[in-house]
Design goal:
The structure holds three protein chains of three kinds.
Chain A lengths: L1 H24 L32 H37 L1 H16 L2 H12 L3 H28 L2 H8 L4 H37 L11 H10 L10 H31 L1
Helix pairs in contact in A: 1-2, 1-9, 2-3, 2-5, 2-7, 3-5, 4-5, 5-7, 6-7, 7-8, 7-9, 8-9
Chain B lengths: L1 H28 L4 H6 L5 H10 L6 H13 L13 H36 L2 H16 L2 H15 L15 H33 L2 H11 L3 H12 L1 H26 L4 H10 L3 H29 L1 H7 L1
Chain C lengths: L1 H20 L10 E6 L14 H7 L8 E3 L5 E3 L2 E6 L5 E6 L13 H12 L14 E8 L2 E6 L6 H4 L26 E7 L3 E6 L12 E6 L3 H10 L4 E2 L8 H5 L4 E16 L9 H10 L2 H9 L4 E2 L22 H10 L6 E7 L3 H15 L3 E7 L2 H10 L5 E6 L20 H12 L3 H18 L3 E13 L2 E2 L16 E2 L2
Parallel strand pairs in C: 1-10, 14-15, 14-16
Antiparallel strand pairs in C: 2-3, 4-5, 5-7, 6-7, 8-9, 9-10, 11-17, 12-16, 12-17, 13-17, 18-19
Helix pairs in contact in C: 7-9, 8-10, 12-13
Classes of the chains: A mainly alpha, B mainly alpha, C alpha+beta.
């Protein structure tokens, strides 16, 4: 069951990544090529997913959109990890006031929905992929900080970590040698989940026009543009949504499967 | 317990204060002039100046912050420059859409999720597996896409529900409720899927299957064991998640309101930013942040009530 | 006990079912009208804001001026029943309607004209079109029903200008509160405004003119194209005079329940260029851009084929229009040749700043695609309306932008110094000065034509197309305006046919 999930989830994720990679070198049509004569064409052999209001091939746009989704969510989670993981490690290592300050700060950041942050950043520096990366990153950081803090806290009270401290090792050294390697698997799982959340969030933000700007294809914006044509070309709202669901589903299954596999291993060890 | 509550309350106030400063500063450096937005391209320089004076925009920055925050603290939320009516009135009108939507979605999600989660936990094999597979897909579906699909099926294909818009409560609750059905479902389904998974996991974690084995051995009814013993013990992770979800739902309504063009707080926020209705934006951001912080606070309190050990550990 | 709770839950269910079944609302009674509008007006005072939506609701319905514009764009009497102009074009004598009262009871007479114009011209005025009143030297009242307006210089557009929504008559008592509770002299009076949703007007029982046939008019704010379509189909809306979804018009055209009326507006969609910047200051470069863009394709993709190609800053419905739409036919080869002559290398790039409306977003993307075919890389940048106004319009900090100029007959903007696109042509300015000072109609007509030709030859901006007015309404509804000669949804003559 668990293995099946990892397999399926991993398979879907690889499929999405491969699509993005293929789109770098080949798409059936150029994703930005406008063809007014064949606008709003229903799905057919020529255009399996149909064409949009500008006559652009939807399949090609979805393939190119995978790239945007992956890059934005990777960057966003990287921002979140770069901020959150060190904060969590520091909080666990020092405790006391440092911890209180960092963790309350995390609570506070978390209180701002990503959408609100994105709206603010957009107002300041305009919409775009970078804006979305920052907004989702800011939203991811406190989650990773909390997870890191909790996981690291568990290790800090283990005998070997205490022993290392007692032997005069510095907090930084213990964190490097004992803490970090032992929480990596927990972090991997959480990062996988955060990636799937980031893809959802990116799509949502692009849907309301805050994300990647035209002509760069983006799944969320395709859905937004499709909504206008819901009466005349309903297929435009169908395929980009499926792409989002597949990408998120893959990462979720992978994350859940990995977590269960880890729990199982831990239980066996115990 | 009270020490724990006091500390959480202190954090809450600090967070709101911090939020007020952030939003105020951001709006100060925001490009765009409210007077220019109101008067448009043909306005002359002296006209713009006159309007800025009328709106109080020519006062020093710190004075405007004090005016605003002082007003909020004494219950005066200021005036909307775009509508020229009191912001409290405006927000109350919009809350009448957003809050029923968020609460309705939360209720629907809970009503769907807890029975499904508990049921899945009490079964093994194919039933459990297929429910879990379905919820896995439910989690992956973006709510705004689900909203579009619902519109496509229930508003375009068969015209059972409106594709958008809100007739207002005074025209009879029937039409108003009907306008909220599709948005509520769209918001609720993905959250229900998450909640069902967590419920199942929590019920299993408290050893449901052990309970059931004992129950069967003793000849007790399974249902009684399930709802009297297993579910209450599993409540903490479930309520914690529900608190988080409500925050998500509040943010989610912003996008869903956009899809269905509902006149709620979300659309008001977008509009206020577009029109540079500064005080209104400040109030709204504070309101959103405040609600989220408040809900998380309430969940903490609730959990502390359910399990007093928690408060001790945390403090 | 058990039966009672069962009973209760079944009535609850029944209640739920009836409420779900009770919509769509009953067909509107034949003396009320529900109209869809896309944008919510920011306040309802046309003398204190520029938004077109303010005029959609209030123009001629609530507020009236000395003159007004009819459906064809002609200046006709309103609160002034007639007027004479002195031969030197400096003195306008208006005879005012008798027995007019405002909806707050204030008597309308010449003192109101003095008050309204004085308020618009005052130092603390927040009138968005203050320049309309700049030619006025003074307003005299020889008798309560006669207003004599003296101008500083002859202004051929004066009567037209006084028909703008910004020049309506307001009462001293109620003027300050017009933003939330408008009080005018028109056939309808304000009843209720539910922000974000609707504005309700009712018939003015004390109206001075013939009573309107409608007893109540509701403006509902429905910006979303899909929702607007659904609202019309379900009967929740009787009319959508400026329908926001050109792509779904097809659905109504074959439905006998609806009238689809494609009319004209004053909206001119242009690719505005910053003529002060290189290489936009080179006429060959601007002409190259004009040749490189297929305007018909843009109309097709951005507006589903509705809309007309324009060749200058003037629309086909304006008087003395000259058809210059063929001046720069789609010709990429010619464009490339002109680019070469202008010394612009392939791979040259500039930014198009796009405001939020969908016509701008779509046209911007299409223009970018066409320009890439002649070797120009266009960077697209979306900005909010507020940022567009301050960055592009006020500070003139932009390369190019797509924008619709909706003000009617606004040839004057090309003669203004330091206007945002920085067109600076002494020849055009001289022509415009002649036009504004001209008192003879034939001379005026000739000059308007010359102005259009000058613009087309210089191509300071790339003129794309005139926005259509797509009106959709219940087939039984009569008297709706086909055209939008000015932002307005004038429903004073609307009625239901039996």
């Amino acid at each position: 069951m668990t293995n099946l999930r990892i397999l399926l989830g991993g398979g879907l994720t690889v499929l999405v990544i491969l699509t993005a990679l293929v789109a770098l070198v080949w798409t059936p049509y150029a994703p930005t090529a406008i063809d007014i004569l064949h606008r709003l064409a229903a799905p057919s052999g020529l255009h399996p997913f149909g064409t949009d209001a500008f006559g652009r091939d939807t399949l090609s746009m979805i393939m190119a959109g995978a790239e945007n989704s992956i890059i934005v969510s990777l960057a966003a989670v990287a921002i979140g990890a770069a901020l959150g993981i060190p904060a969590g490690l520091l909080a666990a290592a020092r405790g006391g006031w440092t911890e209180e300050l960092l963790m309350r700060g995390a609570d506070l950041t978390f209180a701002f929905p990503a959408l609100l942050t994105a709206v603010m950043i957009t107002a300041l520096r305009g919409p775009g992929a970078y804006t979305v990366m920052i907004a989702i990153g800011v939203f991811t950081a406190p989650v990773l900080a909390r997870v890191t803090r909790t996981a690291a806290g568990v290790i800090w009270v283990q005998d070997y970590a205490r022993a290392a401290r007692a032997l005069g090792r510095g907090r930084g050294a213990v964190t490097r040698v004992h803490i970090l390697p032992n929480i990596l698997s927990v972090l991997t799982v959480q990062i996988t989940i955060q990636l799937s959340l980031a893809i959802l969030a990116e799509a949502g933000l692009s849907f309301v026009g805050l994300g990647a700007q035209p002509p760069a294809p983006s799944w969320g914006r395709m859905l937004n543009e499709g909504q206008t044509y819901i009466y005349t070309a309903p297929f435009l709202t169908l395929f980009p949504g499926m792409a989002i669901a597949v990408a998120v589903l893959g990462l979720n299954m992978l994350g859940d499967g990995l977590r269960d596999a880890m729990d199982l291993r831990r239980r066996r060890r115990a | 317990m009270s020490g724990f509550l006091l500390r959480r309350l202190g954090t809450l106030i600090a967070a709101l204060f911090f939020a007020s400063i952030v939003v105020f500063v951001v709006l100060q450096i925001l490009p765009g002039d409210p007077a220019l937005v109101i008067l448009g391209p043909d306005a002359q320089a002296d006209t713009l100046k006159a309007l800025r004076h009328q709106l109080g925009l020519d006062l020093p920055v710190w004075l405007r912050y004090l005016h605003w925050i002082g007003g909020v603290l004494t219950g005066h939320f200021g005036r909307s420059t775009a509508y020229d009516i009191s912001i409290a009135t405006l927000i109350l009108q919009r809350i009448a859409v957003t809050v029923p939507l968020a609460i309705g979605a939360m209720l629907l999600a809970t009503l769907l999720a807890i029975p499904i989660g508990v049921f899945a936990a009490s079964r093994r094999g194919a039933v459990d597996g297929s429910i879990m597979a379905a919820t896995q897909i439910g989690v992956a579906v973006p709510d705004f896409w689900l909203a579009l699909l619902l519109i496509l099926i229930f508003a375009v294909h068969v015209t059972w529900f409106p594709a958008g818009g809100f007739p207002g409560w005074w025209h009879g609750t029937g039409a108003a409720l009907k306008a909220l059905v599709l948005p509520t479902v769209a918001l609720a389904v993905p959250q229900a899927a998450i909640l069902a998974r967590v419920t199942r996991g929590a019920v299993l974690d408290v050893g449901l299957r052990d309970y059931l084995r004992t129950a069967r051995a003793k000849g007790l009814r399974e249902g009684a064991i399930l709802w009297l013993h297993a579910v209450p013990n599993a409540l903490i992770p479930v309520t914690t998640l529900m608190g988080l979800q409500f925050s998500f739902l509040l943010a989610g309504t912003i996008i869903i309101e956009n899809v269905f063009t509902l006149p709620g707080l979300g659309s008001l926020l977008f509009q206020a930013i577009g029109q540079r209705d500064l005080v209104l934006v400040q109030d709204l951001v504070l309101l959103f942040a405040g609600l989220v912080i408040l809900i998380n606070f309430l969940v903490d309190v609730l959990n502390a009530v359910i399990d007093p050990r928690l408060a001790k550990v945390r403090s | 006990m058990k039966t009672s709770s069962l009973w209760r839950s079944s009535t609850l269910l029944a209640g739920l079912c009836t409420c779900l079944a009770s919509v769509p609302a009953l067909a509107a009674p034949p003396d009320s009208l529900t109209i869809g509008i896309a944008l919510e007006p920011p306040g309802l005072d046309p003398t204190a804001g520029a938004a077109g939506a303010i005029r959609d609701v209030t123009y001629d319905n609530i507020f009236q001026g000395l003159t007004r514009i009819d459906e064809a764009g002609k200046v006709v009497p309103s609160l002034a029943k007639s007027w004479t102009v002195s031969p030197d074009g400096l003195t306008y004598t208006f005879d005012l309607q008798n027995g007019v009262t405002f909806q707050d009871g204030t008597q309308f007479d010449c003192s109101i004209v003095q008050f309204s114009y004085g308020r618009a011209m005052a130092a603390d005025s927040i009138n968005a079109q203050k320049q309309l009143f700049a030619p006025i030297a003074k307003v005299d009242c020889p008798s309560p029903l006669q207003a004599v307006i003296t101008l500083k210089q002859p202004t051929s557009t004066f009567l037209y200008n006084m028909a703008w929504g910004d020049a309506v008559m307001v009462a001293p008592k109620s003027a300050a509160a017009n933003k939330t509770h408008p009080v005018g002299t028109g056939p309808f009076e304000f009843s209720r405004w539910v922000p974000g949703d609707r504005i309700e007007l009712i018939r003015n029982p004390h109206y001075w003119g013939p009573a309107p046939k409608l007893a109540a008019v509701t403006f509902r704010i429905i910006p979303d194209p899909a929702a607007a379509t659904a609202a019309l189909l379900s009967g929740a809306l009787d009319a959508y005079p400026d329908f926001p979804a050109p792509e779904t018009v097809v659905k109504f055209q074959h439905d006998p329940r609806f009238t689809v009326d494609i009319g004209t507006t004053e909206g001119k969609v242009i690719l505005a260029l910053n003529d002060a910047r290189k290489p936009f200051n080179d006429i060959r470069f601007r002409q190259a851009l004009a040749y490189a863009i297929d305007r018909n394709a843009i109309i097709e993709a951005a507006y589903s084929g509705y809309g007309k190609v324009i060749g200058s800053h003037y629309t086909p419905s304006d008087p003395n229009y000259v058809d210059l739409s063929g001046a720069y036919p789609y010709d990429p080869a010619k464009a490339k040749q002109l680019l070469q002559e202008a010394g612009v290398k392939p791979g040259m790039s500039f930014t198009i700043t796009m405001p939020p409306p969908s016509y701008a977003q779509r046209s911007g993307q299409l223009v970018a695609a066409y320009l890439s075919q002649v070797g120009i890389n266009v960077k697209l940048e979306s900005v909010e309306w507020a940022k567009w106004l301050s960055q592009v319009f006020s500070q003139s900090d932009f390369d190019a932008t797509v924008i619709a100029h909706v003000e009617s007959r606004d040839l004057d903007i090309y003669a203004r110094p330091h206007y945002y696109f920085n067109y600076d042509s002494p020849a055009y300015k001289a022509l415009y000065a002649q036009y504004i000072a001209a008192t003879d109609p034939t001379q005026q007509a000739a000059l308007v034509e010359k102005l259009q030709r000058q613009l087309s030859a210089d191509e300071p901006n790339i003129f794309l197309f005139a926005l259509p007015k797509i009106g959709i309404w219940n087939a039984k509804l009569k008297g709706m305006w086909s055209n939008d000669p000015m932002p307005a949804d004038d429903v004073t003559q609307v009625y239901w046919a039996q």
